[in-house]
Predict the structure.
Amino acid sequence: MVPADAAAAPRRRQGTAPLTRVVAALQPAPPAPPGPPPADVLVLGVGNYLVGDEGVGVHAVRALAEEAWPPHVRLVDGGTGGLHLLELLRGPARVILIDATRDGAPPGTVTRFRARVATDFPPALGAHDIGLRDLIAAAAVLGPLPDIDVVTVSVAELKPMVLELSPPVAAALPEVARRVRALVA
């Protein structure tokens, strides 16, 4: 015989949560607070930091990150990047790329040009690399490209397993910063 008050109480297996807690756990999470607005300008430094002067884009963007920038500017160390940088190119109105080039100019020469199509970009410095040319060609297939300015620093030789820039390339960093600031203004 079951006592009257026990018969009226709902039975619950030991160790189970009351239904109200289970239902609350199934409710959708509240929307996440909005993040920072997307950057209007992306400054993307690329290159292999482990190959001396080839990493000048990375060195430059790291130096730029030490300075104050307006909130509409995003600085990114793209490293050796490759195709995983595609997503970064889908959003900003303007991209400023910083990279090394072997163009025959004296080491440390800083050049800026406006790129409109993939062939405007210098070929990759290494045969195994996905260079800017390949990255931009892939991005163009996915949709319209942002306005792209490229700031290059001429290099002479690549030295594997060297983290420092050569003196003429290191001396070019202030000029790179000046040109990037002028492009952002």
Notes: The chain has a mean pLDDT of 82.
